[in-house]
Amino acid sequence: MLLDKLNGPQDLKSLSVPELEQLAGEIRDFLVNKLSVTGGHLAPNLGVVELTLAMHYLFDSPKDKFIFDVGHQSYVHKILTGRMDRFDTLRKQGGLCGFVKRAESEHDVWEAGHSSTSLSAAMGMAMARDYKGETNKVVAVIGDGALTGGMALEALNHIGHEKRNMIVVLNDNEMSIAPNVGAMHHYLGRIRTDRHYQKAKEDLQSLLQKVPAIGGKLAKTAERFKDSLKYLLVSGILFEQFGLHYFGPVDGHDMEQLLDTMQQASQVQGPVLIHVVTVKGKGYKPAEADSFKWHGITPYKIESGQVLKAVGPPMYTDVFGNALIELAERDDRIVAVTPAMPAGSGLMKFAERFPGRMIDVGIAEQHAATMSAALAMEGMKPVYAVYSTFLQRAYDQVVHDICRHNANVIFAIDRAGFVGPDGETHHGVFDIPFMRHIPNMVLMMPKDENELRNMMKTAVDYNDGPIAVRYPRVNGTGVELDPAMTPIPIGTWDIVRQGDSAVVMAVGPMVQVAEEAAELLRRDGLSLRVVNARFIKPLDTAMLDALADEGLPLIVMEEGAVQGGLGSAILEHYALTGRSGVPVRLIGIPDEFIEHATIKEQRIACGLTPERLAAEAVALQPKRKRATNQH
Ligand SMILES: Cc1ncc(C[n+]2csc(CCOP(=O)(O)OP(=O)(O)O)c2C)c(N)n1
To answer: Is the pTM of this model over 0.90?
Structure first.
């Protein structure tokens, strides 16, 4: 095994092409084996084995900077840079991160998780290099999916303008997570498949070799001739027009071709784009056959490709998808909008049922938001289904285009709260703070999947502006679903358990946690009142004012950033209405980024547990009672 002898990228340099090819096979076996136990981003990594080998073979990391867009395809890079023996811990608490992580290795120079940042990062690194008078290479690897993101196009525009030395490797596998969409996708497809282009390119190359390099007027004419022909015929013209030298398309699994092209491209002055065509899932049949499913995968059986899934109540995501179909059957104004996440957002069945009403815009959260505002203003009911973390991208569009216009956009905010193994780049823990302060916004979170359905109905019936329902990346509680969905009066909370020792105002899954805390406290003779604070905005101010008059200690519990969360909102309400003396304790996510682990471990790390809540309730008891109730 060559892989066992590999200590770092320097060991690659002495290998022959056949040895590199052998190594590629060994790396694939390694990935398929390890990920069958841990899960992870299998298909994207199987596609970039030769590409990553070629990069480490030709360049000199970490002096040369490798920037992986999203960073989910960096496993091969991790293997080649001394982290092979940590793959059993992949995406686990304290283990190897599923994305690029600077703390792990000097070879990890840029972290991501969200897409389309790599070209801006490469630009910054190239500029810094030039300011410092250094000569290292900067290599960004970006997928055809990530290239649909607006940020990447902003960066391309600037890269062409600046003309700094840098290498953009376009990893074109025709897939985002789902099949890629849009004009860029079609354009790349034409380059890949159009024989015309290929033939023209070959002809042109041999023709250009015959144009003599002579001085004066004739040379200028020859140059112009070259240019005009080039622009007429050469594939990759779009990138050439953007000011990048285009190389490709090259077969990303042909080691020799790949090395040759990358070697040539790296000699060129100015920005270059190498168009590398790869097969997502390459080398493992089930992943090649369905790279959509195998983009990010839970543990599986290697031989059959059978995916091992935990059984349990339906995920909130699926309950949302089904509810949306039911609602859309009765209301043809409803359309679903997704920025490249049709499956993750539970919309696959909707897409089958209503193909014409399913709008996948590619990785374009901002465009999706503004477009939804316009759809709503023209009388449609857009349901913008988006992960909380990716909605961060569209903050301005939510403020400027949706809320300011008071447009009837429905937000279905998935992955609200901790997300587990994807870790800190993917948690949905900031949307309460960044949504609740925007005028006109209504923000809800259900305590269970039945309430999610009712909130969807509430949202569809609501015609006074934007309304958002957020829900977590977990299974529902298993409650029975009412056959009919019933709207909930806006701004009302619900007392789900009576008690008079303390009151907890809990959001979403924290209601269940609060119920468990109440059981713990009951054994100690304390009774915890549990309020389902299902509207984060508007608050149930009538209930809040009554609680203040009652004088019980209050605890707010939410799986979101404490700063700016529901707890902040409640404190603001009391301060603004002259009741600043009301005792309120806040349990939520502290002012830090929480790393990859299971959701349960992440909750424990932040004290989002029944034990912590119970202890807080005990601590808030008048001294006399507290002595007998210690947790
Ligand atoms: C802003 C943002 N939106 C959505 C995602 C979810 N996402 C992760 S990878 C991915 C597809 C990326 O496709 P591509 O760049 O072609 O890489 P591939 O996985 O095909 O190698 C998407 C949509 C994300 N990471 N960031």
So the answer is: yes
